[in-house]
DNA sequence: ACGCTCTCTGCAATCGTTATCAGTAGTTAA
DNA sequence: TTAACTACTGATAACGATTGCAGAGAGCGT
């Protein structure tokens, strides 16, 4: 109710506020026991606001994500929280992928946090030049661009991820390999496409532009893109989806068309899905340790905040691996008699 | 770098800090344009810390959940964020279901937030008596207990939820109906069990203690509980799981045993699961609007924070409904010849 | 007794804002 | 002309903590 201040504690014990303050910060004081008791009696808690003002530190780090309900971002946050430990609190903020909101949030955050860990949806959500003015360090997750040299970042090996998937398809004998890609103005969208194309090129598979559909990293986009692929005259026999939400959408499209996985279509998703093992068949995915990516971002932030360090921008790369479950098979496993998608010959042209 | 203060803005324009402050709070001032420009030039942002100290308000509301990576809690947070709008920021904190951490967090939060929205895992995570001393209002989500009359809360109709599921099973002809329950020291765990038993009693179905397994609201617990049920001499033909994580665990157990749903076993989960439609068969669930539950909690909090209101504790109840998909069927649909679970006669005793 | 270090103390300034208060014009009313 | 009102202003005291400073004792060696 009535907030109790350090002054009241001091009065009760009969010492100065300075002494109580020193006790609070761990110094030896004579009336130690009395102070401890007075604090308990009065139920005193130091005001964070006053401390912040005096010290200029908040012991708070914001994590900004486009959508906390996406399990992927939730895991990042969780990793960051764990790495923050007792020293820092985590202030979580959603942007809803809305650039205006993002800008406003960054402004509001001033004086409230010591630093920001940010997972942007696209690369230009916030004008790059705007960053310098916010006055706190920023660690980017999954984002790299021109000004990247100025900022810390934690990236994932997007190119390798796509490559692993494509190589898997190729090893099984697929040649009609398609990708449902993310927005090309986002780092993951761009790099995952690059990895896809690079792997195809390396295997000397002709690049069929119809086999790359750019979508929006959302479920509906994945559904639409997959539908488009299934409607091609010569549909692919293997599909890589560039993120978890689009994977779900794509699987819905596949299911609604009655296409069988993996007999008629091999499928790999980028980023693991909770319950991937429960799907029929279990989904093969390109996976990374998302929690540790969040943790790594927090670790970098904490280092940056330490005034003893004057580090140059850090760039950490998280590895990916292919987790094989049951959604891929050889393309010739199925007979074409009643397949809904094999209407052409296996050899194009 | 060097933080710019209101004083510098005032100096540059040639007015007093009071005038700048007034401009900031929306009053008419003569040098309006000059101030605006100076703020932009100097890139000045008011310090939240100083404002907090002066006003005693933080415009921040904490949402405390056991695990943000659980999509269910993520949705609560999201709803709360939406309802918070521009006026309040949301500070998210995980407890990891750890009571010590919970206590510590509540302490740390003092002076940092205006109020707390809390989703506790069990009812006694925090000593009820402890709450009075934290000095900010608390809105509970999914929790009710002795001291409930003192605190606002947003509950879900747990009893009805269980009842809907059981009635569905009964309507299909099931009599061997089991439940994988949550911890009985939690509000949802207790009430969902109560609803389960009440519905059975109403239908005059004998209460078989073996058909209620208390688990931990986690995936592994769900797996173990389901395994236990399948191992019974006279296993159930219909199972209700008390939350989403246990549902996933239970489905894994079912799958690993090769039991067919819904032919051999009807299944209903409490709380919807993302991708429930993708499962084979699509999962029938008891669902509520989780986002709106979070939003409702935030709305109550904002009202409580308004000094004009002197409200008695609010208790809002969120409705539930049964979403029928494909995981339930009549128990006699299947023949017993090769079923892995029907070893007894359909009629018990 | 004297100086010296050591440990602890209280005073007071300070962090960046906002709110109170007492002005100072300028306008209008009587 | 004076009074009353309006519309703004600047100086200054808070808000609740931390910290530099000077000083008070205590302990010790000479």
TrEMBL record, chains A, B:
InterPro entries: HTH_LacI, LacI/GalR-like_sensor, Lambda_DNA-bd_dom_sf, Peripla_BP_I. PANTHER family: HTH-TYPE TRANSCRIPTIONAL REPRESSOR PURR-RELATED, LACI-RELATED TRANSCRIPTIONAL REPRESSOR. It comes from freshwater metagenome. The keyword Repressor applies. Residues 4-55 form the HTH lacI-type domain. One of its GO terms (molecular function) is transcription cis-regulatory region binding. Keywords: DNA-binding, Repressor, Transcription, Transcription regulation. It holds the Pfam family LacI. This is Unannotated protein.
């Amino acid at each position: 109710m009535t907030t109790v201040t350090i002054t009241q504690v001091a009065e009760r014990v009969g010492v100065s506020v300075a002494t109580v303050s020193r006790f609070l910060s761990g110094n030896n004081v004579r009336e130690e026991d009395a102070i401890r008791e007075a604090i308990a009696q009065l139920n005193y808690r130091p005001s964070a606001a006053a401390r912040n003002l005096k010290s200029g530190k908040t012991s708070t780090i914001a994590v900004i994500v486009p959508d906390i309900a996406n399990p992927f971002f939730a895991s990042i946050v969780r990793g960051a929280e764990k790495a923050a430990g007792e020293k820092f609190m985590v202030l979580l903020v959603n942007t809803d992928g809305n650039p205006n909101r993002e800008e406003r949030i960054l402004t509001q955050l001033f004086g409230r946090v010591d630093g920001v860990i940010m997972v942007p949806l696209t690369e230009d959500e916030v004008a790059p030049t705007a960053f310098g003015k916010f006055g706190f360090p920023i660690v980017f997750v999954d984002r790299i661009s021109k000004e990247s040299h100025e900022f810390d970042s934690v990236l994932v090996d997007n190119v390798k991820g796509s490559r692993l998937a494509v190589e898997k398809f190729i090893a099984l004998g697929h040649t009609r390999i398609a990708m449902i890609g993310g927005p090309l103005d986002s780092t993951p969208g761009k790099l995952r496409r690059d990895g896809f194309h690079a792997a195809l090129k390396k295997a000397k598979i002709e690049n069929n532009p119809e086999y790359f559909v750019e979508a929006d990293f959302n479920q509906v986009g994945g559904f639409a893109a997959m539908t488009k692929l299934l409607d091609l005259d010569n549909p692919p026999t293997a599909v890589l989806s560039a993120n978890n939400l689009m994977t779900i959408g794509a699987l819905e499209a596949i299911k609604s068309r009655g296409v069988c996985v993996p007999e008629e279509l091999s499928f790999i998703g980028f980023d693991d899905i909770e319950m991937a093992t429960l799907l029929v068949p279990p989904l093969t995915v390109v996976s990374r340790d998302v929690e540790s990516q969040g943790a790594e971002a927090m670790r970098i932030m904490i280092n940056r905040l330490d005034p003893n360090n004057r580090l140059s921008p850090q760039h950490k790369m998280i590895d990916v691996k292919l987790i094989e479950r049951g959604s891929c098979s050889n393309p010739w496993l199925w007979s074409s008699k009643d397949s809904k998608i094999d209407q052409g010959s296996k050899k194009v042209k």
